[in-house]
Design goal:
By secondary structure, the chain is mainly α. 58% of the residues lie in helices and 6% in strands. It has one domain (22-105). A hairpin with a 2-residue loop joins strand 1 (26-28) and strand 2 (31-33).
């Protein structure tokens, strides 16, 4: 059984975070300056989590419609990755909200 065309293998779907926010690099006085905003990085993380969930949903639908066209292990891995992405996104969001509330309370 092969993975569905266009969906890729579990390895291809692996979410890497090492290049987030790197688009804002620029050179100033011969030195490379990394300009990474928290908002941009967080937005990219949310996009990657959303993409992971969407891929999981598409793979699950494909498995339901044509079980022989996709390996059930790939579907299981995609669902687990989506669950982890949602869990981590919620944890980061809760931490940001908690930090914001603490900053507001310092006034």
């Amino acid at each position: 059984m092969n993975s569905v065309a266009g969906l890729g293998s579990a390895f291809d779907r692996a979410v890497t975070f090492q290049h987030l926010g790197k688009e804002n690099n620029y050179t100033e006085n011969g030195k490379t300056v990394v300009d990474v905003s928290f908002g941009k990085t967080f937005s990219e993380l949310l996009d990657k989590a959303s993409d992971t969930v969407n891929l999981s949903e598409r793979m699950s639908e494909q498995f339901i419609l044509d079980p022989q066209s996709i390996d059930h292990h790939d579907v299981t891995i995609a669902v687990a990755e989506a669950n982890m992405a949602v869990t981590m996104t919620k944890a980061v969001t809760d931490g940001v909200i908690r930090a914001y509330k603490e900053i507001i309370n310092l006034r």
